[in-house]
């Protein structure tokens, strides 16, 4: 577990924690690059001192990773017999994650080339576990014969996440699951074996 998301030591004021994380997210959404999101600016926005931040997170990278992680609720537990149903559950949550102007602003910021070490940390800590959840379902489908041998889980995962991103804003409100079902079915039509169809 990445301890930056749950800093060690005695419990601190939840109100201060919430204010700091909220300020960090607001600044991430407002700024054009990570260099402009400083600990000083976060502290000023949150109404706390820098020492209050550094008692919780040792550096800006840890703080920003924790802030972005607050936008990602836990993925649903999966393990059904159907690869299709498991993927629908996961992609539905991913569609919900993306249905936020704040999320989109932060995604854009993460494409910048400033502070690559922070961007890499956020991707490894926040995004990679969600990608791995999809990979695991796909690997299980290959092993069971539901999906064709030689299928590349990483490629299918990118198709699903890219499809979720492309569908953002184009679907009626509250239709995340219906869109996820169409997206998963469309992708899997090219991945199923005859026996798995």
From TrEMBL:
Residues 14-75 form the HTH tetR-type domain. InterPro entries: Homeodomain-like_sf, HTH-type_TetR-like_transc_reg, HTH_TetR, Tet_transcr_reg_TetR-rel_C_sf, TetR_C. Pfam families: TetR_C_11 (PF16859), TetR_N (PF00440). The keyword Lipid metabolism does not apply. Residues 38-57 bind DNA. One of its GO terms (molecular function) is transcription cis-regulatory region binding. Coiled coil: none annotated. The keyword Transcription regulation applies. Keywords: DNA-binding, Transcription, Transcription regulation. This is AcrR family transcriptional regulator. It comes from Lipingzhangella halophila.
